[in-house]
Amino acid sequence: MISHTMMHSEESLAAEFDRLRRRPAAESAPPVLCEFTVDLPGAPEPYAERLRPVLSAAVDLGITADFARDDLPTDGVPDWFVAVCSPDGGGAPDFARNGRAAYQAHTESRPWSLRNWLHRFDPDDDSRGWQWWDITRVGPSRVRIWVDSRGESFFGCQELRWAAYTAGALYVDGPAVWNLGVWAGERPA
Question: Which domain of life is it from (predicted)?
């Protein structure tokens, strides 16, 4: 098994950041990917447009920030995500508050603070066992979030689940390991 520290090198974080901005080529994919199937209250495109910037901001911090500092710069994190990570979620839009409640109901976990969530993207933190790969549309109100977990079916991913729910998910199922052909055959969201 490859260590998570190697998984989150400066080079791999830069590649992950690039995949958040555009669909990767099938030739660059590992033989297997993990997916999370996400049920949505509406169309996939607005959902993807909310999720990508949150993860992009976090991965960018993984590349640029000094995680030993008390306060990480959060100016790149979308305002709605900062609000939903506050102690009571106040000021967050409906989609984020509804996602926060769904996360708590389905995972029986407490909401994440922004600081704790961002620290999962510290390259020296070995608890994040995945890297973003893509998001695909699999129905009028369903997407799949694809990640590279180095072929592992069980890995640290609660921070991804939190982002997925608070971006507006009704339910997040997974992870499940699939051959890369399944991902390559789906259209982007």
Answer: Bacteria
